């Protein structure tokens, strides 16, 4: 199987996490879970750049740094969204609550670290500790078929849970 630089399969796990831990910030969680693949996209667009598909961004250090950036960006986005007056009489269950910086950072860290965890099973060029060339202990513990299957299953379970939660916000008249 060839390299896949941007995979929405990461959203399977994050959707399940979001469904279970509904208090988490969805922006930080979902952006954090895929932003690492900008490195792979850049590597494919500019093959002579020397940037590996799974370089520093796909390490624990890169995930931490990107988590800080994504978490802070998400927090600022929420502050901006809440300054805009949309004049809704009845907020929908999709209205974003005012998330704290702590929740935005935790959500972004869960997203970035879950990306590294999933990729660590699959790619031999991924180094968990990029500074030190330590062998990746997770490599090939699960096949790519198993990892992708688990991501699909997580997505389905997470979607069912979220649909169930959404239905509790609606009245019987809204469902007709």
Mean pLDDT: 85
Number of helices: 7
| Radius of gyration from CA coordinates | 18 Å
Shape: globular
Kindly state the number of beta strands. 0
**Span of the ends, CA to CA:** 46 Å
**What would you call the structural class?**
mainly alpha
Which range does the strand content fall in?
Answer: under 5%
For the largest beta-sheet, the strand count, sense and barrel status come to: none
* Proportion in helices: 55-70%
Order of helices and strands: HHHHHHH
Low-confidence stretches: none
Walk me through what this model shows.
The protein is mostly helical and 176 residues long. It has a domain at 24-141. It is built from 7 helices and no strands. Helix 2 (26-32) packs antiparallel against helix 4 (60-83) and helix 2 packs parallel to helix 5 (101-120). The protein starts with 9 loop residues before the first helix and ends with a helix.
Summarize the structure.
The chain is an all-alpha fold. It has seven helices and no strands.
Keywords:
single chain; mainly alpha; 7 helices; 57% helix
């Amino acid at each position: 199987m060839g390299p896949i630089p941007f995979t929405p399969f990461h959203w399977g796990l994050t959707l399940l996490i979001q469904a279970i831990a509904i208090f988490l910030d969805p922006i930080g969680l979902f952006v954090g879970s895929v932003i690492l693949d900008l490195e792979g996209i850049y590597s494919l667009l500019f093959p002579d750049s020397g940037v590996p598909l799974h370089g520093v961004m796909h390490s624990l250090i890169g995930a931490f740094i990107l988590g800080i950036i994504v978490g802070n960006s998400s927090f600022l986005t929420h502050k901006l969204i809440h300054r805009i007056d949309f004049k809704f009489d009845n907020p929908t269950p999709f209205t974003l609550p005012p998330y704290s910086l702590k929740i935005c950072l935790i959500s972004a860290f869960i997203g970035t670290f879950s990306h590294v965890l999933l990729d660590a099973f699959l790619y031999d060029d991924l180094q968990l500790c990029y500074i030190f060339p330590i062998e990746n202990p997770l490599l090939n513990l699960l096949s790519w078929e198993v990892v992708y299957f688990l991501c699909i299953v997580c997505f389905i379970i997470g979607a069912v849970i979220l649909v169930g939660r959404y239905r509790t916000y609606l009245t019987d008249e809204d469902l007709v």
